[in-house]
From TrEMBL:
<keyword id="KW-0812">Transmembrane</keyword>
<dbReference type="Pfam" id="PF01594">
    <property type="entry name" value="AI-2E_transport"/>
</dbReference>
<feature type="transmembrane region" description="Helical">
    <location>
        <begin position="68"/>
        <end position="89"/>
    </location>
</feature>
<feature type="transmembrane region" description="Helical">
    <location>
        <begin position="336"/>
        <end position="369"/>
    </location>
</feature>
<dbReference type="GO" id="GO:0005886">
    <property type="term" value="C:plasma membrane"/>
</dbReference>
<feature type="transmembrane region" description="Helical">
    <location>
        <begin position="96"/>
        <end position="118"/>
    </location>
</feature>
<keyword id="KW-0813">Transport</keyword>
<dbReference type="GO" id="GO:0055085">
    <property type="term" value="P:transmembrane transport"/>
</dbReference>
<keyword id="KW-1003">Cell membrane</keyword>
<protein>
    <submittedName>
        <fullName>PurR-regulated permease PerM</fullName>
    </submittedName>
</protein>
<keyword id="KW-0472">Membrane</keyword>
<comment type="similarity">
    <text>Belongs to the autoinducer-2 exporter (AI-2E) (TC 2.A.86) family.</text>
</comment>
<feature type="transmembrane region" description="Helical">
    <location>
        <begin position="37"/>
        <end position="62"/>
    </location>
</feature>
<dbReference type="InterPro" id="IPR002549">
    <property type="entry name" value="AI-2E-like"/>
</dbReference>
<feature type="transmembrane region" description="Helical">
    <location>
        <begin position="286"/>
        <end position="315"/>
    </location>
</feature>
<keyword id="KW-1133">Transmembrane helix</keyword>
<feature type="transmembrane region" description="Helical">
    <location>
        <begin position="179"/>
        <end position="204"/>
    </location>
</feature>
Length: 388
């Protein structure tokens, strides 16, 4: 009896690994397929494809309802920036009066900036056009003088044909269709602006009540996470807008005063453009400085243009090495590569508005992620693990 048992055990021990796998139950064989290297890789690939599909659906949905989503996002960001002032005024007046005071003050400031920009451009536009014509003539003269030394010769007839093509396009039906689409875009802009002001007012008036209503639907075990996430997002949005406005004001004053001293036309609207463009990190201030340099080149010559370029570089260095680390240290705790990618994606999705909103939204999302992973509030991670 013992000898037969020994022989059976000996035969089982001499079986190959293929025989052992073949004798496994089907359920174990399927589980083994998904637990090896190829199985784990396939699982991760499927998860990645699913995440990309969800992201694509979200992007398409966002583009379809961007007329409502963009004003909502802008209003929320502005409300976060203005909320400390509303909370301060609520100590001496009713919530409704405090909301109206801050709302009308913000609208007056933004409207005053826009009106100053338009009025300045309208007053100095004829002079700038004349100087631009003279500058273009000078550039054309220099081009004709040195073009004969180029490897590729461009004749005057080719230049005239190019000018005629541009003129024909401007007077064609295609340009008229573009103008009609521009009118449609202006109507959408007006609708979005009105919706933005309405949402902003109600956020200033009832923002805390809306947030409390939202929290009332959250599970009790995650309530502290949601509260911390809302606090971090509000501080990030508010700090970003207030810090960017401070830096933009310094840039606009520095460049605008230099343009006025040097006698460059459109100094005031260029200063306002610098202020607005500075809300696009890394790119806006550079583009505004290039525009100011080009205007100085056309209107005042290349010596003044070089001086303006030096002022722009100096102001940008002051911003990047001194103001940015101090004012935006907490609100914009992102790597430059992340900011660049966010700007690119925001511009592709929604143009200039997307470029302005991409960075604060990315910063707020990163702040919320740190809350839920316990990197900014470690005590919440311990509470969450205990509740699980």
């Amino acid at each position: 009896m013992s000898l037969g048992l020994f022989r059976r055990r000996n035969r089982a021990g001499s079986m190959s690994s293929e025989d052992v796998v073949a004798r496994r139950p089907p359920r174990d064989r399927v589980a083994g397929m998904w637990s090896d290297f190829l199985g784990v890789t396939a699982t991760r690939a499927a998860q990645l494809l699913l995440a990309l599909a969800i992201l694509a659906v979200f992007v398409v949905a966002f583009q379809q309802v961007s007329l409502a989503v963009l004003p909502l996002l802008i209003a929320l960001i502005l409300a976060c920036a203005l909320w400390p002032l509303v909370r301060l005024l609520r100590k001496v007046m009713s919530p409704l009066l405090a909301a109206w005071t801050v709302f009308l003050g913000a609208i007056s400031v933004l409207g005053g900036i826009g009106w100053g920009l338009v009025a300045s451009v309208m007053n100095e536009w004829p002079e700038l056009v004349d100087q631009a014509v003279q500058g273009f003539g000078e550039v054309q003269r220099l081009f004709e003088q040195y073009a004969r030394n180029f490897p590729i010769q461009i004749s005057q007839d080719q230049i005239n044909d190019a000018v005629s093509s541009v003129t024909s396009f401007l007077t064609s039906s295609q340009f008229g269709a573009g103008a009609i689409s521009g009118i449609s875009a202006a109507g959408s802009f007006l609708t979005g602006t009105i919706l933005l002001m309405v949402i902003l007012f109600f956020c200033l008036k009832d923002g805390d009540k809306i947030w409390e209503f939202f929290l009332s639907w959250m599970p009790e075990r995650h309530l502290e996470h949601w509260k911390a996430s809302g606090h971090e997002a509000r501080e990030t949005f508010g700090g970003y807008i207030r810090g960017t406005a401070t830096i933009a004001a310094v840039d606009a004053l520095g460049i605008g005063i230099a343009l006025a001293i040097l006698g460059v036309p459109l100094a005031l609207p260029l200063g306002v453009f610098v202020f607005v463009a500075s809300f696009i990190p890394m790119v806006g201030a550079t583009v505004a400085g290039i525009l100011a340099t080009l205007v100085a080149l056309v209107a005042n010559g290349w010596i003044i243009a070089l001086v303006v370029l030096g002022v722009v570089i100096l102001v940008n260095q002051l911003e990047g090495n001194f103001l940015q680390p101090i004012v935006m240290a907490r609100a914009l705790n992102l790597h430059a590569l992340v900011i660049l990618l966010a700007l690119t994606m925001g511009t592709v999705l929604s143009g200039i508005v997307g470029a302005v909103l991409a960075v604060p939204l990315t910063a707020a999302a990163w702040a919320v992620i740190k809350v839920w992973t316990g990197r900014s509030h470690p005590e919440l991670e311990s509470v969450s693990s205990t509740s699980r």
